[in-house]
Amino acid sequence: MSTTVGVAERHARSLLFVPATKPERFVKALGSGADCIIIDLEDAVAEGSKDSAREQLAQHLPRMTRAQLARTVVRVNAAGNLWHEADIALLRDWTPQGVAVMLPKAEDAGALRSVAKTLGDAARIVALIESLAGLDAANALAREPQVVRLAFGHLDFQLDLGMRATAEEFELAFARNTLVAASRRAKLPAPIDGVTTETSNAERLAADARRARAFGFGGKLCIHPAQVAEVNDAFGHTEAEQAWAHRVLEEAARHGGEAFSLEGRMVDLPVIRAAEAIVANAEKQPLPGDRAKAGA
Domain range spanning residue 153? Predict the structure, then answer.
């Protein structure tokens, strides 16, 4: 597998949902500035449309380029669900092409391992934690070899616990801390925070993104293209971080792939991959003037 495959969802700041029933939006969503798109076979699709949504996805995946596939995640229906096995069967042929899989209602490492086995060695899985059972299993889920990132479905999580969080969501701090810590223990990239449902409220989005970044999250789920630019800014990298990343890559080139020390810190492959992601994401960030011209 190419070393560049998997960088997108592992270090994505913005991940934009697109219903599988709207294939005409796939390429448009990829052009929105989002680091990744998530083609949704689950919550965005009514029960009566599940099979037709999967068929539409099967028809449109072959029309996407390798680069587009590498920025595509598909949210399947949860394990044990009526449509789950058919979703996984479809994606078995596409995970080697760069498509990643988001597994909702992730709660059991054994079930996740079964999904990974069916999808094959090339599969990369984003485990979406949406329940107390999932939170309790966060460490085990994060340590599964083919899990590349954790994500927080905070709305379903509140439903599971009968919570009614305030706008600031202080009540969810314990869950966010747990996911960030589990990701760190498993040496995964920082997790992905949940959506902001108020698509026309820029202040709410900015506050939600700042909170996620402060907790140690590395990205956020989006449900509208208008949310992408703000999320990318919130999870972007400072000039100092970008300079550090460039120094890492320069030294890595000199050391020919061997681990080395830089500024008192050991640098090995995961650190190099993180530096690559910082540089790649920085190159995507428009200058402030460019955003103004675009009407952002």
Answer: 7-234
